[in-house]
Description:
Structural class: mainly alpha
Number of helices: 3
Radius of gyration: 19 Å
CATH class: Mainly Alpha
Low-confidence stretches: none
Number of domains: 1
Amino acid sequence: MPPSALQIKVNALKRLIKEETLYQQEVAEQQQYVDQMKSNNADEYELKKQIQVLEESQRMVPEVSRKIKDHKEALSQFLETYKGEEDLSAAKELVQ
C-alpha cells in the first residue's frame, strides 16, 4: 500500500529537520577543523578550500530552515482540510 499524502508530508518534514541538524553539526565540526588548520599554519590552498566548504555549509542552514518553515505551513494547511482517519498526533506535533 503506498504512503498516504499525510505520511509523505510528515516524513518530508522529519527529513528536513534531521537535515538541518546535520548541517548545523557539520558547520560546527568544519569550523573546528578550519580553526585547527589556521593554528597549525596549514597549506594556504588547502585552508582556502576548507573555508569554502565551511561557507557552503553555513549557507545551507538558512535554506533548510526556510524549507522547514514552508513545509510546516503546508502541513498545517493540509491538516485543516484533512478528512481521513489516520492518527494526526505526529503531524500536529511537527507543526507546533
